[in-house]
Design brief:
223 residues, 38% helix, globular, 8 helices, alpha/beta
């Protein structure tokens, strides 16, 4: 793939393939043995990662940047090998959103967090806010898109992290991330490569209201 318009890099989001946590319906969002070892890709997840990479060729000079959690790192390694891009760069700013007190609980609890995001309700104890996720991913993206960036940059990470990133790149409130189309396991999606202004707390409410007008994409509950 060639550079985007005016020589800018193409920015991509690649969600990890099916993980053991996905398969068993368990929340694994914090650094530790579960995230780094246990919640690795399933056989299906590895197949998904390989199939996605084969179906979506990326330039050999691309930079692949991944979360250090096993499910994302394995996905990045599989894709990078197929694309011939070299070893992925690990960056902790792409780690899963921290789900705090929900860690180890049922993945059914995600729905309550997403509803709180959408309606501005209090989050469960220790859950990272969309704004906090946006701050860390914005610092990474702006760093990567500076001068001499490669033709393609692929961010390999987790559903909430990538959809929150997509939201602020589009100038949406970070809390509106669930109005975007659901990012499926091992899905590769092209993102805007010119970051829009991140809405301030005073403008997030109006931005979110617009995202819920008729015709806006509806939130999904499948993670």
């Amino acid at each position: 793939m060639s550079n985007g318009q005016n020589g800018t890099s193409r920015l991509w989001a690649l969600r990890h393939g099916e993980s053991r946590a996905n398969q068993e319906g368990i929340i694994v969002s914090r650094p530790g043995t579960e995230a780094f070892v246990w919640a690795k890709l399933t056989e299906l997840g590895r197949e998904q990662a390989a199939a996605s990479a084969r179906a979506n060729p990326i330039a050999v000079d691309a930079l692949v940047v991944t979360s250090d959690f096993a499910r994302a790192r394995e996905t990045a390694e599989i894709a990078a090998e197929i694309w011939g891009t070299g070893e992925p760069r690990v960056d902790t700013r792409l780690r899963e959103r921290d789900f705090g007190s929900l860690e180890g609980g049922s993945s059914a609890l995600y729905d309550g967090v997403w509803a709180a995001d959408t309606h501005g309700s209090p989050l469960p104890s220790g859950v990272e806010t969309p704004a906090e996720v946006a701050l860390r991913t914005r610092s990474l993206v702006e760093e990567l898109l500076r001068a001499n960036a490669p033709s393609d940059i692929v961010l390999v990470a987790h559903g909430d992290v990538l959809q929150i990133t997509e939201a602020w790149l589009n100038g949406m409130a970070a809390t509106a991330h669930r109005t975007l189309p659901h990012l499926r396991n091992a899905e590769l999606r092209l993102l805007p490569s010119k970051p829009a202004r991140v809405p301030t707390p005073s403008t997030e409410a109006s931005t979110l209201t617009k995202s819920h007008q008729p015709g806006a994409a509806s939130a999904r509950t499948v993670r």
